[in-house]
Amino acid sequence: MSRTQRFSPEMALALGDAYLRAKQPDEASRYADLAMKSLPSPAHALQARVALERRDYPSAMHEASLAIGEKNPQPAMLLLLADVKRAAGDLHGALAATESAAARARDLGVPALYRLDFVRGDILARTDRPAEAVEAYKREIANFPQNTQAYANLAIISSLEGRRADVGRLFEQMVAANPHRGAYELAALTMETLQEKNAAGGWGKRAAAVHQNKTE
C-alpha cells in the first residue's frame, strides 16, 4: 500500500486543496481521485478547481456539474459553477448561477453563503454595473469580514470613481478585521496596482512590521 492510499478521503481532499493552493494541480488531481469513491461531490469540486487552474474550462464545467449532482444540490457547488462560468467569460450564465446558489441557500436556511456576494460583485463590475457591484462587495464584507479580496475589489472601484479617501478607510477596516501580514500585503499590492506608489510603500512597511512583531 502506498503512502497516499493510507489517507482517509477527508485527508486526501485536504491535501489536494493544499497542493492546488501551492500551484501543483497534478498532485491535487491525484488526491481528488483518491477521495472520488467515498466523497464524490467534493472530489469533483476539487477536480473542477484543478481544471480552472489549468484554464481547461470545458473540463471545469463538466466536473462542476458532477459536483452539483442531480438531487439536493449544495449552494457551494452551485457557486462553484458560477466561478467556472465567470472564468470562462460567460458572465450572464455566471450571474444566473449565483442566483441559483442564493435561492438554494435560502431553501436550506443558510443565512449567508461565503463568497456569493464577492462573486456577484465581480460579475457586476465586469458588466459595467459598478453601483450594484459596490453593494454586493459591502454585503460580502458585512457577512464575511475575513474575505480580504472583497475589500481590495471595493477599493479599486472607489479609486476609479475618484473616492480616494474611501480607499484608505477600507484598508484600515480590512486590517482591523484581519490583523495579519497577508492583509497588509494585499493593501500594498492593490495600491501598487492603482499606481499609488507612496501608499503602497507605506502598507509594505506595515506588513514588514507585522511580520517582525510575529517573529520576536
Provide the low-confidence segments as ranges.
none
- What global shape is seen? globular
Backbone structural class: mainly alpha
List the total number of helices: 12
Run of helices and strands: HHHHHHHHHHHH
According to DSSP, the number of beta strands is 0
Provide the helix percentage: over 70%
What's the mean pLDDT score? 95
* Strand composition percent: under 5%
| CA distance, first residue to last residue | 44 Å
Rg, nearest Å: 19 Å
**How is the main sheet built?**
none
Notes on the structure:
By secondary structure, the chain is an all-alpha fold. The longest helix is centred in the C-terminal third of the chain and has 19 residues, at 197-215. It has helices spanning 9-21, 25-35, 40-53, 57-68, 75-88, 91-107, 116-126, 130-143, 148-160, 164-177, 181-193, 197-215. It is built from twelve helices and no strands. The chain is globular and about 50 Å long. Helix 6 (91-107) packs antiparallel against helix 7 and helix 7 (116-126) packs antiparallel against helix 8 (130-143).
Short description:
The protein is an all-alpha fold and 216 residues long.
What order do the helices and strands come in, and which of them pair?
Layout: H1 9-21, H2 25-35, H3 40-53, H4 57-68, H5 75-88, H6 91-107, H7 116-126, H8 130-143, H9 148-160, H10 164-177, H11 181-193, H12 197-215
